[in-house]
Write a structure and sequence with these properties.
By secondary structure, the protein is mainly alpha-helical. 66% of the residues lie in helices and 0% in strands. The radius of gyration is 19 Å and the shape is elongated. The protein starts with a helix and ends in a 44-residue tail after the last helix. Bound molecules: fe (ii) ion. Fe (ii) ion binds next to helix 2, helix 3 and helix 5.
Length: 184
């Protein structure tokens, strides 16, 4: 199969599936926050989910989806999935804006949507697209952003270089490199 399916290009699919896991894990944090009714924490966790979700669905839509969509048997299905991307955005915004009781519905809709991609669309794409089409998918898919979370739903510290934490530990990185580490 690898000799003609453009196997290497299917790293795009591997990336999307890994991003799905990350999005689901961060949604777990959102649902937990919503269950406590902590509005500030809900807004924070919703921001993390949105920060993962938006670049991901955009990458799917402009790359893989647009190439697959050219094949008639996929057109309707792709349109349904794109519609779900929009309704997931709306639901997430509603939760962030205070509809905490809708967080479980968001999680359920997200899981159902991701299942359709992981277990339906992606395997079908692997069977249907040829090497040239995978090359087009690769060429049109935006690069993945730097990781936002640790993959388990926790936001990676973005304040490492701001140093708002106490210096009760040794830094492992070496100073004197070309990178500067401002120490206020
Ligand atoms: Fe997806």
């Amino acid at each position: 199969m690898c000799s003609y399916c453009g196997c290497q290009s299917i790293t795009v699919v591997g990336r999307f599936m890994a991003e799905h896991d990350e999005i689901i894990n961060s949604t777990g944090e959102l649902v937990r926050a919503a269950s406590t009714g902590d509005a500030e924490r809900v807004r924070e966790t919703a921001r993390v989910v949105a920060g993962l979700l938006h670049p991901h669905t955009h990458a799917e839509e402009v790359g893989l989806f647009s190439v697959l969509r050219e094949q008639e048997e996929f057109t309707d299905h792709i349109d349904v999935l794109c519609g779900e991307h929009s309704s997931l955005d709306e639901l997430l915004e509603a939760v962030a804006a205070g509809a905490h009781d809708r967080a479980p519905a968001f999680e359920k809709a997200l899981r159902t949507h991701i299942d359709k991609e992981d277990n339906g669309l992606f395997p079908a794409a692997a069977m249907s697209l040829d090497g040239t089409e995978w090359e087009r998918v690769d060429a049109t898919t935006p690069q993945a952003a730097a990781p936002l979370t640790d993959g388990r739903g926790h936001l990676l510290s973005q304040t490492d270089h701001v140093h708002d934490h106490h210096h009760d530990h040794e830094h492992e990185h070496e100073h004197g490199s070309s990178q500067s580490h401002p120490h206020p």
